[in-house]
Amino acid sequence: MWNVLLSFSGLVALIQLLFLPFFPESPPYLLLQKGDKAGCLKAMKQLWGEGNYHIEFDDMMKEKAVTKGTKIMNVLEVLKEPSVYPQLSTMLLLLLSLQLCGLSATASLQESTIPYVSLGVAISELMSIIFCSSIIDHFGRRILLWGGYLLMALILVLLETSLLL
Fold first, then answer.
1. Which residue ranges traverse the bilayer (predicted)?
2. CA–CA dist 128, 94 (Å, integer)
């Protein structure tokens, strides 16, 4: 019954894929990143219901004014910034510690290939983190979430189909 359990995660991804287009963008994203005041207020009303959101809107406008002169850095600029080294070190430590959890050893691999599989997984995770963080500002989180869920659902459907055949 493991294949049913595996397809359950595909079902959850499919449900999220279907309902994600009906949710509005984040109000701070619309105001701070896109500069869309009307869209921000519309998203606030859609998420929180009818009401007066001028206090929250004013707070976001103050945040926008404070961050107006702040330069948005790309991934390489962040890696060169010494003030983020503690956070980057923590993330890197967590990423590397995942490689020591034993998942590669339980995958029925030959013992000589386990270090290479672990290294390959770590490199692919690191590359996906760098790639996704560099394109997230361009496309936005909603498009990336939608694309990720679509890709996960398609892969799981293909996997389940190949298992049935």
1. 6-24, 113-136, 143-164
2. 15
